[in-house]
Amino acid sequence: MKITVVGTGYVGLVSGTCFAEMGNTVCCIDVDQKKIEGLKKGIIPIYEPGLEAMVLRNTANGNLTFSTDLASKLNDTDIAFIAVGTPMGEDGSADLKYVLQVAQTIGDHMTHPLLVVDKSTVPVGTADQVRQTIQAALDKRGLSIDFHVLSNPEFLKEGDAIADFMKPDRVVIGGDDPEALEVMKELYAPFFRTNMDRMITMDVRSAEMTKYVANAMLATKISFMNEVANICELVGADVNKVRVGIGSDSRIGYSFIYPGCGYGGSCFPKDVKALQKTALSYGYEPQIIQAVEQVNDQQKLRIAQKVVAHFGEDLSGKRFAVWGLAFKPETDDMREAPAIYIIQELVKRGASVTAFDPKAMNEAKEHYLKDLARVSYVDQKYEAVQGADALILLTEWKTFRSPDFEQIKESLNEPVIFDGRNQYNEKVLSKMGFAYYQIGKK
């Protein structure tokens, strides 16, 4: 099939590349001329394992191209995916201006029947707005062209997005036209090969809702477990053992019940807020969903609170080594990362920070921590620890899982580790003389 994907962020670039990998002819569109020129030269604007090799391979074989000109590409398109950003507005709602701008361009320039697919995470009712925008543009042109707007939400985990797309747990497609749904089934059939049961079709509004509810449910599990962890600290229980105890129940399972310093990223924070906003706009107060966000906001400062409890309110003259800046491993994404809030709090109290992350340091320097003068960066993890007053682990990259604790102890001014991901063995560290602070254990 001939596919156009508008937007070259995580969703758009991964989706377009994976469709190309299956033999489709794909053009990825973006208004950012610099990004498009870079992609044409093989420069990938995001870090995602496996993506660069797949982009280069499909660019070389002609299946994948890049352009800034959506209008001209519509003449040679069967399916147009909208995968642009839906940033969070000041009131927590999803900003649809970029989605509707794409819809306007499609309506202004389409010349033949087309399937338009919302791939971006959008609130319930967005497909109706896209449809109205396209139809209004066609009416203004005096044209009657058949088109259908569908919802095809993404369920990609940053750091494992290629595998998620190529071997999906499920594909959700929302639409009201049987023929359009059949085209989408044909597009996705190669990703399933034998088991088509995981391709789920429904009405558009249910598909739009499914994405928000999925992320809100996972965020709920995280916040629930973090709240349990805080209670464990108060009563003298060990949340690591509690997690094993409840996870062994098949009704609960082990996924997303690991305590930590809060969730971040581009999806959970934004989607939880957007679902709240949707509910409130219909006059319903979503108490559980609101609590999920509140617990997460508080959890992001738990590690900073533990640092203060150990060193005192005034951290002037103290320097802390921070391992991990990205909101999760295998990505350079720092959007809403707990590291931002923890480092800001430490610096506000007078401390300085030396940080290391395998992929996210440029993001920190150029965007998220650029205004903090007392934050520096090093190229090696042990370099960060040298002469620091404590080590703070915030992202569970593999390179941090089995470090040389003897070297860490020798490098630190005093042997103190604050572990925001409960990675290490308390007994081993205690025997070595470390003061070791976890989440959910006193």
Ends distance: 58 Å
Mean pLDDT: 96
Assembly category:
single chain
CATH class of the largest domain: Alpha Beta
- Strands of the largest sheet, in order across it? 3-2-1-4-5-6
The low-pLDDT segments are none
Number of strands: 14
Keywords for this structure?
442 residues, alpha/beta, Rossmann fold, N-(1-d-carboxylethyl)-l-norvaline Dehydrogenase, domain 2, 3 domains, 6-stranded parallel sheet, 18 helices, elongated
How would you summarize this macromolecular structure in one to three sentences?
This protein is α/β, with parallel strands linked by helices and 442 residues long.
Fold and architecture overview:
The protein folds into 3 domains: 2-202, NAD(P)-binding Rossmann-like Domain (Rossmann fold); 212-298, N-(1-d-carboxylethyl)-l-norvaline Dehydrogenase, domain 2 (Orthogonal Bundle), CATH 1.10.1040; 300-437, NAD(P)-binding Rossmann-like Domain (Rossmann fold, 3-Layer(aba) Sandwich). The N and C termini lie far apart (58 Å). Strands 3-2-1-4-5-6 form a 6-stranded parallel β-sheet, with helices on both faces. α18 (426-431) links the parallel β13 (416-419) and β14. The protein is α/β, with parallel strands linked by helices and 442 residues long. It is built from 18 helices and 14 strands.
